[in-house]
Amino acid sequence: MPHWRLAAALLLSSFAAAQDAGLSGPVDDTDPGGLQLIVANATATPDDMAAVTVTMTSTHWVVAATSHQQMAFATPHAKATAKQNKKAHSKSSASPQASTTRIARGKAKASVPANTTQNAVSLSKLINVTDEWDWTTFKANGVNIGNWQVLESWMNPTWFASIAAGTGAVDEWTLAEYRGHKIMGPILTQHWDTWITEKDVQTLSDLNVNMMRIPVGFWAWGNVTGVMAGEPYYIGDRLSRIQRLIEWGALHNIYSVIDMHGMPGSQSGNDHTGHVGPKLFFQPANQQRSRRVIQVVSDWIDALPKTTRSWVAGLEVVNEPQLSATGSWYDKTYEPVLKSFYHDSYNIIQNGNTPKKTTVIHDAFYPPGTGVWDDFMLNVPKNNLVLSSHPYYHWDTYSDAEAAINTYKSADWFNYPRPLWLNEWSLSLPDDCVNSYTESSDWYQRFWQHQVGEWYQFAGHAFWSIKTIDNPPWSLEILANAIPTAIETVTTPE
Q1: Within 10 Å of residue 137's Cβ, how many Cβ atoms?
Q2: In terms of Cα–Cα distance, which of 484, 442, 491 is closest to 59?
Q3: How far is residue 455's CA from residue 409's CA, in Å, rounded to a whole number?
Q4: Cα distance between residue 448 and residue 220, in whole Å
Q5: What is the CATH number of the domain that holds 313?
Q6: Is pLDDT at 36 greater than 80 in this prediction?
Q7: In this predicted structure, what is the pLDDT of residue 395?
Q8: What backbone torsions phi and psi does residue 235 show, to the nearest 5 degrees?
């Protein structure tokens, strides 16, 4: 195995400390503790701004930070916590139903059997309390768990078409409306238990993922008074499964952020809000109900077992709200309404029983420098409020996308006075690029490296999504298996 210079380390507070330590030698990738090693043959730079080297192999995302800034990927005691969690987890899984899976590091980890509410409760006893995620210091190496709690037909088109056949259904609302709960209940329950499993979470850990963004619909809490207003959604036992996913993540040293992908009235009218149609989120009645939703979800997080709760890194209060009443990007009719909702949501979350819970707000596709968020709520602690942005380039050529990615290094972004999290992005460009995909091509490698290298300049990223069916640019599951192990190391430009 080749020798590499250690450019950044989890347990060192700066690159200078790592350099002074003179650490070097072969990379040991058999460590079962779950440390996300940050190694590369990189040298220090005099700049305070991070220069990040990113490579991707078939089993790992490897990131090297040559910077005087801390580039931690987990809390200081993550190694000990991970070992304790996995040791307890293995002991708990002696049931004949449990399966053992061989992983890339050559260590066996046992899976928890049975998808039950009781299992979720028992999992919490196996988890150790971890440190609060620090958005001002740590870098999210994340992935979205899309098409799980909020269906998106394009992510599994054949399956969706089969359950919607003959109905005209296009989203979760119309599936429940046309098929009814007796039919959709078993279908959705099976989907929740198979689309994402603990084996998938284990694989994410092996890929050095340290953050899951979990898109959910408000109707998951539909049994709580004041949440629903006659919507036809099937509620079922979603909450125990969301809790279980958080706990699976904790067992594998992965934090979670709850993302309110679908809110009352629909914030954009797109299928990923649960209901295709008019954008009614900004109406007064739905704004009032949305505040109730944030209160209910915040209370639910607070009520989780302490061990589980410690692995929740934040609550994103609404995904991709659209400010325009006309469809024009220049029309920001709903800006005051959204800012009021963000302000109230922040206060609701901060007033909960859990101190310093982080509120994540989406930029509504108006990133720093556009004047919308530049002076918004600057008086609150940096770690308590995070701005998210979704840099998609599906409609660009590669060269245009590359240029657009570089704009994220502009002064407007670097000077923005709070953490920025690029928590949705993909490798998608024009549709004809999908057809050119081959396992031997380095196109995806270069595009991946370029984007991730930029996103680590800020608070990190979350790729969309963990999996899609037959759509590689949007599927980490496909990309992780297809990208060759021998790839060129790319360093972000100064």
Answers
A1: 15
A2: 484
A3: 9
A4: 33
A5: 3.20.20.80
A6: no
A7: 54
A8: -90, -60
